[in-house]
Write a structure and sequence with these properties.
190 residues, six-stranded mixed sheet, 7 helices, globular, binds zinc ion
């Protein structure tokens, strides 16, 4: 299993998945972001890990696990000046800019913490879509040899929600094999 999650210290992949050493191939970065195939052509560590997991380890499941109170997602709404001294972070977070546009378009009335929670969840779906931009991943999805899963770790409640495309919601029940070949992720979640 490939587990892609945030660098946040409160997220412990082995704890979250109740797995042991040897069971998870883990990618962590600020905001659990998968750069789209055409965004970072060279020296893209996420792409390298994704390629290795799919083509060599032949993992069956790929999980993107976002979480509540994610500073990376919050920073999408900060003024440019607040990130002026953090050029690397600022540049990295621009990869999630489509999430911000999406939230502002589909949830124009929502503000504050609720907006942050929606952004965290929409970011999970955006990064799942980004996985599909890699030809080897899209081929594996077509062949049903990999399945994509979106998880949301609510740190305060200590619970995991998983995205169910049939209800378009993040739900408590964990079930697998959510994403069949070419299955389009819907536009909005709550
Ligand atoms: Zn985070």
């Amino acid at each position: 299993m490939l587990f892609i999650t945030c660098a946040d210290s409160r997220v412990d992949p082995n704890l979250v998945t109740q797995s042991r050493p040897g069971e998870l191939f883990i990618v962590r970065n600020v905001g659990n972001i998968v750069p789209p195939h055409d965004a970072v052509m060279d020296k893209n560590s996420v792409a390298a890990a994704l390629e290795f997991a799919v083509s060599v380890l032949k993992v069956a499941d790929i999980i993107i696990c976002g979480h509540s109170n994610c500073g990376a997602m919050k920073s999408l709404y900060q003024d440019e000046s607040e990130l002026a001294n953090l050029p690397h972070l600022k540049e990295w977070i621009t990869l999630a800019a489509p999430v911000k546009s999406h939230v502002e378009r589909y949830y124009p009335e929502i503000t504050g913490e609720k907006k942050e929670r929606i952004t965290e969840k929409e970011n999970i779906l955006e990064q799942l879509r980004n996985i599909e931009t890699y030809p080897f991943a899209s081929k594996a999805l077509r062949e049903n040899s990999i399945y994509l899963h979106g998880w949301y770790y609510d740190i305060g409640k200590g619970e995991i929600l998983s995205y169910n495309p049939s209800t378009d919601k993040f739900e408590r029940t964990l079930s697998s094999k959510y994403f069949a070949a070419n299955k389009q992720l819907p536009a909005g979640v709550e």
